[in-house]
């Protein structure tokens, strides 16, 4: 079976969030199961690859051509499409994102002809479901890919009947994610709990009715971790290796973390995107109480400018209690996973979440909200603490309960959990078989 993963990002070539970790790791886990999986990405600015050909495709009624590159990393074959608009610094966040990714998807369908099945990831690749046998994965329902209908149908050349039959229509606009759900042979999302939540109005982001109608082809498969990349026993970013059986090296990580940040323990860490989805408003509101109780806070991430300004201001006002790093820094992220006393994951909603899994593997228990993949991966009171109420008091209660129950013991139990891709990969292989009938 030959499967082409089509996505905007994949580790280690291009990464903004957890989607990249999934797309980078899953193909490796599928290989021992007899699935030949390659990854197709846009040829983002700065990526080096060997040119292996050219792809001709139609866009706006004209033929366009894009160079095709190839690069092998970690045994995975990555293909890069050099369509117009991607030689830039960022993966997302431009006014013409819809046009860029539609152009990419139309070129990708030509590459897909050489494969049995397409595995399309999120809105940026959703269009592939209209052209090829597709398994479509929703990584985050909040980002749906909305496009005005006139430019969409001019760019793609698809018939307007698709809009009028409501296969793509969403409050007067084209919704690419809706198209992926409607036309894919199977739809997956990244945790069992999130698969149930998104069929409700509270979490469905306006697509809950569509998801209920297509519930028969929807399944939640929990994301795994690349346990070779995230392994405290051989992590090159840590000052000393450690394992559950011999955790002595963790003390070295704590010392190095303290030296790098200037924060004395106990330190609570947040590592990830600066996004209101992640519950960072709760962290800011709970911060005065946390500091009063003697906790320190390390925050690392990029994203929303308002949140960035708020944490910069908080650090200026509390230089001994807060450290904020507005950057993607893998070395510091690993040190935080290993050196903090606990990680905070207070999300409003969370399709899966990788931070709580990474931190658990490094023996640092999470304080997480009981939503989506967080409640599928954190054993409340055993490997971390879950709290229900989206309120600063809920977060404070979770932090105090974690420390009352015993941080170190909970961290050691968290290291026992199996977050590898072995089980999820078997589940995806079964979904692929169903999709191919």
TrEMBL record:
ADP-alpha-D-glucose binds at residue 15. Pathway: Glycan biosynthesis; glycogen biosynthesis. Residues 258-403 form the Glycosyl transferase family domain. GO terms for biological process: glycogen biosynthetic process. It comes from the Bacteria. Its EC number is 2.4.1.21. HAMAP family: Glycogen_synth. Synthesizes alpha-1,4-glucan chains using ADP-glucose. This is Glycogen synthase.
